[in-house]
Amino acid sequence: METIIETENKRRMANMYNNKNLLITCDNWTILGMPHFVHTMEYFYFATSIILQYKNYLIVLQIPQTSYISTYVISYINFLYKKLNNFIFIENINNFNYDLVLKFSHFCGIMSDNADNNKNGFKKMDNFISWKDNSIKNGYYNLWFPHTNMSDIDNIHNFFSGENKKKMLIGLINRRMNNGRSICNELEICSKIKERFNVDVNVIYFENISFEEQISFFENHNIIISPHGAQLVSIPFAPKEALIIECCHEEYHPYYYFPGLSYSSNKNHIMLCHDHSVFPNWRSPIFEKHNQLKLNMNVKYEKIIEIIEYYTNNNYTLNEKKCYLY
Questions:
Q1: Could you give the number of structural domains in the chain?
Q2: Which domain holds residue 166?
């Protein structure tokens, strides 16, 4: 029996063929970190920027040759089908009449011919900023939404993000202790924020909640506190110029990754870690011999309060749309 998506694909193909504009993507996704859904979302966020950029084309996203399926990714594909009508996600492209294809593209840096140099997606060298003294540290960001012009940037921001209500809506996304990278002093942080700002912090754990619940939490909070982890893949859904406070243990702090997602989706990002002296290395020397240990952490609440105070006093933004290190 034909699925709803298969029926919708046929309808879209019939409508868009009249325009004679097709953009067919590559199905060679083998260099991505699949099936981990966060790395799969690198592709789908990039694909979303292409769909938004080429509104007069039918974007043909080929189903990959490798495993990619997860609850989050399938939910995101369904989300795209509800929001955008100029793409299809399909396995067999042999039935396409290539005489009608005006643009055939192995798009996306993570699938380029020079894949070894792009295995983490499009990279952009730019400044990271020390929170303490505004000194500059040069590193690279992973661009989940590469932009070609300002209109593309606006399209992406408007697609994902609502307006920032510019009042304190603080959410803390924690992780279960047995999953690692948990903020151990969650209660202390919430108590100190309440004491300083008279604002309650909404705490949530993303384990075992739906895609819709996850993106809704981001949509309804303009200040997000979270340990490093997969839950941050929903950053684009936070309001425009939202503040993302990513908390890391010295054991593992990949500077290019989620700061790059904030960087390319118009969010303010601060990475908290007790020691940034090893930047741009991802871990302090004592941990270099280990794989990811996913160590739990205590986060200095004083830093969080200082950051929130500055952000709100500065009209709910930071001076630079770069990643701050604190």
A1: 2
A2: 162-314
* 277 part of a folded domain: yes
Residue 142 lies in a domain: no
For 275-300, write each residue's pLDDT tens digit: 999 999 998 888 888 888 899 999 99
Q: Which two tokens stand for residue 219?
A: 């949509």
Residue 124: other Cβ atoms inside 10 A: 15
* Amino acid 107: pLDDT: 47
Helices (H), 94-169: 150-160
Q: In what order do the strands lie in the sheet with 170-174?
A: 136-143, 122-130, 323-325, 268-272, 243-247, 223-227, 170-174, 202-205
**CA neighbor of 48 nearest in space, from 2, 1, 93, 89:** 89
pTM: 0.91
Q: Are residues 293 and 170 in the same domain?
A: yes
87 token code pair: 């793409």
Question: What are residue 141's DSSP bridge partners?
Answer: 124
Average pLDDT over residues 180-195: 99
